[in-house]
Design brief:
Elements (H helix, E strand, L loop, with lengths): L6 H18 L2 H21 L4 H23 L5 H4 L4 H4 L3 E8 L4 E3 L2 E13 L12 E13 L3 H7 L7 E9 L12 H6 L6 E5 L4 E4 L7 H22 L4 H10 L7 H9 L3 H4 L3 H17 L4 H18 L4 H19 L5 H15 L7 H21 L7 H25 L1 E3 L2 H29 L1 H25 L6 E3 L5 H40 L12 H26 L8 E5 L8 E4 L5 E4 L23 H12 L7 E3 L5 H4 L2 H7 L5 E3 L7 H12 L4 E3 L5 E5 L2 E7 L22 E6 L2 E5 L5 H12 L27 E3 L11 H7 L3 E4 L12 H9 L3 E4 H4 L2 E6 L2 E6 L7
Parallel strand pairs: 4-6, 12-13, 13-14, 14-15, 19-20, 20-21, 21-22
Antiparallel strand pairs: 1-3, 1-5, 2-3, 3-4, 5-6, 5-7, 8-9, 10-11, 10-23, 11-12, 16-17, 17-18, 18-19, 23-24
Helix pairs in contact: 1-3, 1-15, 2-3, 8-9, 8-18, 12-13, 12-14, 13-14, 14-15, 15-16, 16-17, 17-18, 18-19, 20-21, 22-24, 24-25
Length: 888
Amino acid sequence: MNVKGRPLIVGTAGWLAGSSLASVFSDARLLFIWMGLTLLLAAAVLLHRKLLRSMLIAWIAVTLSGAYWLWHDARNVTALPEALAAAADELNGMPLHAEGVIVSSVDVDGDRADFQAELRKASRSAEGHGGRGLPPSEGFRERVMVQVKLLSKEQQDAARKWQRGDQVKLDGTLELPGNARNFGAFDYAAYLRTQHIHWLFKTKGSEHVQVSLPVSPWSTLTVFRWNDHARSGLGDKIGQIFREPHAGYMKGLLIGMQDDIDPVTYTQFSQLGLTHILAISGMHVAVFVASLLFIFSLFKITREKALLMAMLLIPLYVLLSGVSPSVVRAGIMGMIGLYAARKGWLKDGMNVLAAAALAMMLWNPYYLLSVSFQLSFLVTAGLMVYVPLMSRLLRFLPKRIAGAVNVTLVAQLVSFPLTIYYFNQFSLLSFAANFVLVPFITFLTLPLGAAALLFGWIWLPAGRALGRAAELTSDWTFRLVRWLNGFPQFVTIWKSPSFMWIAAYFVLMYLFLFIANRQTGRREARQAENADDETAELEGKGGSLDPDDAAPNKRKTRAGLAGIMLAFLFLIYWEYRPASLHGEGLVQFLDVGQGDSILITTPEGRNILVDGGGTVSFRKPEDGWKDRKNPFEVGAKVVVPLLKQRGIHRLDAVIVTHGDQDHAGGLQAVLEQIPVKAFLFNGTLSGTKAFDKLIGTALERRIPVYAVHQGMKLKPDKHTELAFISPMLDGAEQEEVPVEKSQNHLSVAFVLTMNERKLLFTGDMDQAAEEDVLGLAGSGVPAASDPRSSGDSGGADRRPGEGIDVIKIAHHGSKSSTGEDWLRHWRPKAAVISAGVNNLYGHPHADVVRRIEHEGARLFRTDQNGEVQMRIRPEGIQVRSKFSPFRQ
């Protein structure tokens, strides 16, 4: 194999670049970028004629890959509107009867079953067409995500019998998947589109899902059906061999089934950057191949046959491991490497990696958008490029340690940019954790677990005996992971960096290692030459080396390395520092569904979170079968990721307006994952376990807790003041925190004055609480509508005659709040309602919307506009929302 010119690597790099550009840009911008890139490559050829071949290969690859991406992406459209002779908007929410095939494994989790189905026949239900059924549409194929709401434990048991390849008849509702409702949030619709899915098919009750065996026992899905059976059997066997939580851990470690891993354990691994251990990757494939070759050698199988058998068994392992992008990459590389070894060809890791990347991109261009694909190829390529450069710098370490340090350090450095881009956190203890645990798990826990599974399949007691030994090793792993997670101060939070920052990071790292490597090589050469000169002098032959000749070059090299290192450190600092608002304030009304969560950032960079949303559950104790393994929770799934993605290193204050779950529930995850300097609440407990736990977490983490009331003020910086106007102070001194079941009346309300602009936050305060505040205003507090008022009574905020700028409407627009007198008193220019899309409560109420419109205030609603952001400037407030970029 001739690898002298490395055309495959150049072509693959060009292919990845072209696909990346086509995925980000479109239309005229993409054309202009392609023209500029063409000119750039032509200029490189004019400067260096020897680059003609490489630049031509790169240009062809960029052009073809861009065209291939656009062609592939243009074909990724839904066929249902044409098949049903209806516009997409008409189909959204339409009752439908459909027939097709289940094309994925069926995930039954609590009271829901999810699977992908390929629809091949569909018709509008009589219910959705004025009581008249229509003939079915055929001759199309449409992949949809089916979500079945299960109504009983018996339905759950029935759903567990559904399998890939089964024929299915469905009656339900067709819906468009949701887009990201907050800036920078996960976009479920975009994710499903990469799987060629454009619709959700929702149905309630398994009686609306009729499943039958495949028409033909042989089809493309047959192999995957057998594979599902095998994976399920392996998972069940692992459950028999190991005890919890080890069984879930071993399922992830051995066959890539992460659904059963204890959520707390997974979070702890994630915090330390160890989740790659739980995902099947190149390490697992290497151990698998090495184990096969060792077993074959015991049976005296020839080298050629052993390599061939191992190569043929790799696809089986890839299938059993779940066919994730990382294991597919490792499998392809393993097969190419084994084939090259069998043929005796020259092996080049970068060419093998390039071939694997090109093959995967040709098969499915959307692999490029997979985090697993990106991390797998980036880390593998980084190890090939940077490990040789780093090895010479680590020669001062013992050889056995140097190799492990080299690989771990390079892997950490290379994966760092993508880690902070996608996960927005990095633990400074990650290197230590990976250095200790990766070899420990690779060479001890993984082989022991695999042996326990193998022997357990033959004879269960033997498997369990080995399983106990494997459990001991995983116990040590869990203890170390828990201990390392006991130092939250080492977890750093990063906002998602730009592409230019990531490129600069890798360029500077390569330059530093390249120059340092050459400098080390020259020093070793001089030392060797000095040794030769000393030998020659002893022999009477004289020497020729002048130490002063190398001094100027040595100083220049050191200065260059120092400059690169300073630039690298500045790059890290620049990305880690809080984003500057240049004297502006920022108020972000997050879309957390039916709940409130507001992030306030002051002109000097102080961050205050008001409420955290929360997932409300009305589940009864006897409905335990409905519990999901990792249920959706607003704080952990929405609020915390958004805070991290925006680079919020700490919260200077958390204000919970009251103890209701849709305001306080999400703050539990916030206190557990984000450093908090102060916790403010209304001075009462709600009597629920969730709120008691929240207060307990604040005390346990030694966060100062303050009970606020009317008359108190908080001044985060010289441009910002929070003046609390509710709840009213109870004159009686109380030794214990009182319990109040009804929390709305006691909601914390305050006026935020920032850059001379005023915003009113009201929690869920009811009209009685509003009247209390207005009554206080009547006894001396100046009304917003009275330009002559200038007094300040009871600690309430002074309000100019033109009223306030923004009011956060209380209780999601409920008719029990935001009375006419309240709005007339404050005279807001704009109002924000935080409510869930199609919520069960009918929020906001039509009367409240009418009152706001009557006052002439501009209305923003999270159920319609998504997240609403307001930039607060002395000269005015600039507003934008996720779905409507308003300006004011």
